Each structure stands twice: as C-alpha cells, then as structure tokens.
Amino acid sequence: MFKLALLLLAALASGGSAEQARFDNYRVYEVSIETERQLQTLQHLELNPDGYNFWESPVQTNMRLSIVVPPHKFAHFEEITTALALKTRLQIEDFQKVIDNERPKRRPRATLDWTDYYTVEEIYAWMDQIVAQYPTILSGSVYGTSFEGRDLKAIKLSQKAGNPGIFIEANIHAREWISSATATWLLNELLTSTNPAVQDLAQNYDWYFIMIANPDGLAYTKTTNRQWRKTRQPVNALCVGTDPNRNFDYKWMNGGASSVPCSDTFAGPSAFSEPETRAMADYYATIADKINIQFSFHSYGQYLLTPFGYSGAPLPSNDADLQRIAAVTAAAIQATYGTRYTYGNSASVLYTTSGSTVDYFVGVHGTKLGYTFEFRDTGATGFVLPANQIIPNAEETLNGIIAFVAEAKTLGYV
C-alpha cells in the first residue's frame, strides 16, 4: 500500500500524464557566476523556478552553468542579468528544434546500429541477444530492481581468468543518452573489432558494464520530459526523484549537492535512499577486488575528471599519475576528430560534488584509477546530442581508452 501511495504521489507530481513535454522557443543560456550576490540570486531562482530549468545547480562562484529559459521569462531573465551584471551566452535559440533534430531516424529497430538512441527495452533486449550470441565470453546478471520495478542489469566480458578488471557505468543521469549509447557501442566493438589494439583490450582485460544505471529516469525522458535527470521515487507530494550521482554513501552531502527535494541535485533524504544506488554499490562490492580501472560515463562538456569532488577534499595520493594518464587520454581523443577535452580534478576544473559514484568507488573500495568522462559537446546542443554524433563520440572515446590503458600499464596499474 505504501508503494502504491508513492506511485500515486508521483503521478500527481508529474501531472498524471505521460504526454511528452515540448520546449518550443525555449532558449538555453550559459551563465557565469562571479560574485556571491549572483550565486545567491541564482540559488533562490533554482528553488523558485517558475518555468526555468537549471542544467547544473549553482553551487559556487567561479563556475558556469546553463539555464533553460521559457518564452514567458525572456524579459524577466534580461532584467535579472542586467541587475546582477551577469555574463551570459546564448547556447540554443530554440530548444525544441534541437530535440527534434536529435533523432531524425526515429523508428523501432530489431537491433542496435548506433544511428539512433534507444529505449530501455531495446537496450536490454540487445544485451540479452549478445549474451546468447557469445555465451562463452559474456555473462549477464540482474543485480537489483529499480523503484518502478525494472531490472538493473550488468554484463561481463571475460576471455580468460586472472585478467585485470575495467568497470563502466552509464546513464545514471537520465537525460544523458549519449552515455549508454557509447557504452553499448564499446562493448560491441570489443566483440567484433579487427583492430589489434581493441582485440588486446578484449582478450586481456575483464570488462564489467552497467549500461543503464537509472532505467526509470531514462524511460521518463523518452515518454514525458527530455530534460529529466533524477530517479523516479517520490520524495513528497510535489517532488519526485533523487540525483543518484549525489546519493552514494561517501562524503554524502559534503558540497555540490542539494537538500531541497525538487532540486535536480537533491542528494536524497539519506545516502543510498534509492534502490538503484544501493544495488549498484552492493554489486560493485562483489567485484571491487577485481577492478583496476573505473569509468563513469556522463555528458556534456568534454571533460575527463579525477577524484575527489567533495568540499575540501584532498587530492588522491596518486594524483600525479591520474593527471598523466588523463593527459595521454585527452591527446588520443583529440587526435581522432579534433575534440578537445579538459582534464583535471573534478572540483577544480568543473565544480564541487559529493556522493558520486567515482568518489565512492575510490574512497570506499580503494579503486586506484577512477575517472568521469563528460562527453560531447560544449553547449551547442548540451544533453541533446544529435544521433549522428554517437559513433564519432564512441570512436574517439575508444581511442582514448586504448591510450589510457596503455599508460596505466606503463605505470604499473594493470
């Protein structure tokens, strides 16, 4: 009965309808926060949005964020920016046009071909299909159940015993479709590529993938709100969802996370309040001693970020190695298509966060190499990366990972 009541609250909080939200003539602005007054005003606005949507939460000065501005707020936004002397840049003139252009070939597929973005069901069906196709080297598992009752699935590639382990989790933030698209493409490449460097990765490393860490949220972005970021467990009658990448029990609520339930960076009523995060942590605990490298796939911004992200965090003892590996990886990514990645400590080059997956895996389990990828682009389309960029993004990521593993091997991590 309690879960039924929560589901009813969720229906009320989401308007009780699965009709797809539209964003015709909505603009997206990049805003630079330079003063405490600017920060406090934007924090107040995030708490009382009245149509605004923040792609990043205003957590500190000396950061940039993107705000979606509805047409009825154009004049109001101009007044605010003038009064606060905010530096802004128009990123997107009409957000709905970007969404419409994201999936020009939108139609059901029998299998994945990475020319489109796919549903939870399509991705899971593909995972089941390839496990059946490669039963001697692939194994699938269900490591938990989401709030709405969806399976939480993992898949492992192993060609021989004793290999070093590489763990990849994707789509923990619902709207970041490119993350699961890239993860699935990478696994397919490990299975089918004739490139000797890729074959070496497939044969001499064990790969663990969580393609969709937040399936409820991903499903909601497909049916109802393309901008949705969080999980779908109701918090109260007005607010639904927790930011799962602020919900892990390591330095939880120690900067860069919100205690306000309707905020996109709400850290949850407690650490591991979400079944999705608790299940991932439990799964990782079963393989942590086998994992040498951990990647968290996100978008957007073109960053390669190292731990720790929480407020006042020290740099890891091996930070010099982390940055050396990141530099080599960024260079290999750029050499592919010219895509420039910024790399460095996440709190220093981007903004403060706490309760994240990478900090948890490194801080709790001692994983030596933990990194966050923030994929394409730098704001022209934001989270709504056109489907024709899936394969180029994945190709440059693979080249980066090849270079990453080679440098990690040179330094003795694998």
- Low-confidence regions: 1-17
Structural class, please? alpha/beta
Number of helices: 13
CATH topology-level fold name of the largest domain: Aminopeptidase
Supply the number of structural domains. Answer: 2
Tell me the overall shape: globular
How are the strands of the largest sheet arranged?
Answer: 5-6-8-7-9-12-10-11
Rg on CA atoms, Å: 20 Å
- Termini gap: 50 Å
Average pLDDT level: 94
Major β-sheet annotation:
8 strands, mixed
Beta-strand content bin: 15-25%
Return the CATH class of the largest domain.
Alpha Beta
Any idea what the CATH architecture of the largest domain is?
3-Layer(aba) Sandwich
CATH homologous superfamily (4th level) name of the largest domain: Zn peptidases
Number of strands: 12
Query: Order of SSEs, N→C?
Result: HEHEEHEHHEEEHHEHHEEHEHHEH
What is the helix fraction of residues, given as a range? 25-40%
Signal peptide: 1-18
Keywords: Carboxypeptidase, Disulfide bond, Hydrolase, Metal-binding, Metalloprotease, Protease, Secreted, Signal, Zinc
Subcellular location: Secreted
Protein name: Zinc carboxypeptidase A 1
What does this structure look like?
With 414 residues, the protein is α/β, with parallel strands linked by helices. It folds into two domains: 27-101, Metallocarboxypeptidase-like (Alpha-Beta Plaits, 2-Layer Sandwich), CATH 3.30.70; 120-411, Zn peptidases (Aminopeptidase), CATH 3.40.630.10. Helices cover 38% and strands 17% of the residues. The strands form two sheets. An eight-stranded mixed sheet has the order 5-6-8-7-9-12-10-11, sandwiched between helices. A four-stranded antiparallel sheet has the order 2-3-1-4. Strand 5 (138-145) and strand 6 form a beta hairpin. The longest helix has 21 residues, at 390-410. It is globular and about 60 Å long.
